[in-house]
Give the backbone structure.
Amino acid sequence: MQAGVGLEIGYSRRMAARLELSYVRKGAREVFGQRTDRLEATTKLHYAQLNLMPLILKPEWKRFPVTAGFGVYGGCLLKMSHRYTVNHGAVFSNVLLSDNFRSMDFGWTLSLGYQGFRLPLELRFEAGFRPILPSHGLQTPLYNRVLALHLTI
Amino acid sequence: MKSRQILPLLVLTVLALTTCRRERDVLPLEDYYGYRTTGNVTIRRLGNGGPEYYLGIDQDSLRFTAEARDMDYKQVPAPLFSYWVDGKPMPNGAFLPTKAGKYNFRARLGPKESRPVTVEVIDPASLISRLYLGIRSGNPGIAFSDGSSRFEFFGVAVGLNGTSLPFDFRPGIRLYVDGLPQPTLEFIPTQEKRYRVKLKGFGKESNEIWIDAHPPDYYVTQVRLSMVQNGPEFQADEISKADFRVETLSREGRWVNFSAQPQREFFVDDRLSPGLSFKTRTPGVYRFKAKVFSRESNELTLSVLPPSESAIITIPIVFHLFNVAIPQAKLQAQVDILNKVFRDQWNPNNNPKAERHADLRLQFVLADTDPNGRPMPQPGRDYIDLGRARYSQKEISDKLGWDHYWNPDFYLNIYVANYTDTYLASLKGTWAGLGSYPWTRVALPGIIMVSGNPKPDFLYALYVIPDVFKDNYVTQTVIAHEIGHLLGLRHAFNEASCEQDEDYCDDTPAYPRHQYIPENLGTRRIGCDGMAFSATNFMDYYYGYENSFTLDQASRVRHILNYGLWLPTPANGRSNSHGRITGAPGFVKRPPVLRPVDWVACPAPEARPFGFLRRPADFDLLKE
Ligand SMILES: [Zn+2]
């Protein structure tokens, strides 16, 4: 879930820049296994996030009004929660874990928009530059990777 | 070209998705980052047995469990540990050793690893020099081929130093009969043949036992009944006792002790009697006969006299005090206690006594004459100053005691010293008293029998620590207890198991020794028959009423007084009833070679200061 406000500055009819401030909730449900044991974990991360898209292209094809943009973002971790269950047993929450996450996350954004409807739609992909959790020990470092559909009012 | 526009936007995400890991992929647990908050991990070995060594190869798995705490020292719920042995994963925390050596076991939770638990796995075969096979029940001299003989065997794994090993080797050892493995240590012959029985295990084979099985009547061409009685006169006092033996002559011309029932029957005055011993309260002439497979034995008769009091025997005591200054009054006080104990008068707290409590008709005096025939200025006192405070029991029984061994046909020698030996590691701490069993000229179960008049080749005497002279209920009767051993009584409890009543006295309920836990036992015991009872016997350990000998015990003691060696009894030429010594009794010299003795060590209560013991008033009184 994410919500925010933005400012768009048009360079020309076909080019613009955008600055957005938003609240973003990111999260993951993961399953870890060791032999027959299964540990299911749900992590929720709440960020205040600033997106800067210095260049948005709007080709203005009549039939197919699309936009494409590229930018960077910086997020500030407001809150995180972590719950897990082992072999479908009781749910436990780990409150100490938030200290382990990085309080800032930086990354890049790629956006594809469609303006053929009344409200413009935008498919956006975000990826962090560095793991949100210092990766020591983990075989697969944990990065923020978000694919989101935006609706602009 | 339009002017630049600034457009306010409200961005609303309809769909927010996840990190790029696919949801249902199962990731390796090592990647679970939630365990980063683990503070510490501890690992522990499950099950009994010492934590630091494990005896066994390919037998049983070592099992471990672990515990984890987080940074706030709270227990981590439902932790999924991984276990490691010498850096290799150990699934389910279990490890089956296949090679001897030292192993390090660790548990891991996330980034945290426990300190290792090191277990040395020992190959049992490397500790065993040989296996010994013995028979626990069944007489290999009489084996029936009709399936009615049952043999039970036992095995001993003998260690490299020749002693039996204190570990349980049974899982690795099997019984073989004629080369075929048996499921248990039991065997029942079913054919007329010679069976060869041995143990195999740990790459070793035991001695072989032969069992020659024949049809039952093979053993019985003739039946012989013989009798041993425990006194020159048989009185109807329930102390005088006769023990019988039934022997049969086999076809090969061998007399065998025939105890198998129900083929063996024993009759007293033509009435079937369950045991092979006889006591009575009714005077008269009794006839005894045995039958085996309906073949009758000779008949024996016994004249039972009206109950008269058996003679009171007085025993002079000498206390050899090795650098311990016990006041003369304390020596006399101890003799006064003995004179109550052995006359069935000791019960300072008026507790219930054993149902068949008995007067042993034995009394004691402090010796008034020394071995050179000189009157003693302080009776019963032999102070020995060797210029040091502590002695080992071994040096006293091996050497020092022999320099002061007053002729035991005249004196009961009691060696008092601050002993250094813990003697038996299992007793945790020191013993309070140490005794040995007598030798006899006429058979008594559990007692060595000799003929003639041999000199002692071990220091037949008592050994006690000075604390037994304190005014403390639990230690006041230690000397009485040790005199009980010296006169042929065994502990009232069973040392090993419940297979037989080990003290040969039916009226002292047997219970397994491991039940004797001083801390919480009180006077309560659960007997081998499952019945609860209160411990009253002097031959039990401390936490009891300590106020009774029984009639069966009286019978054994009377037998030793009649036939035992090295005691100042009429049987050994002391005819007095007041313990006065005439002549110069002299010393008994140490023989060049001493007999190794299994001393009966009787523990001091957990080696704690005696003053801390509970008084009997606090003991749990068992309500039955
Ligand atoms: Zn004892």
Notes: Chain B is about 10% helix and 30% strand. The first strand of chain B starts at residue 6 and ends at 16.
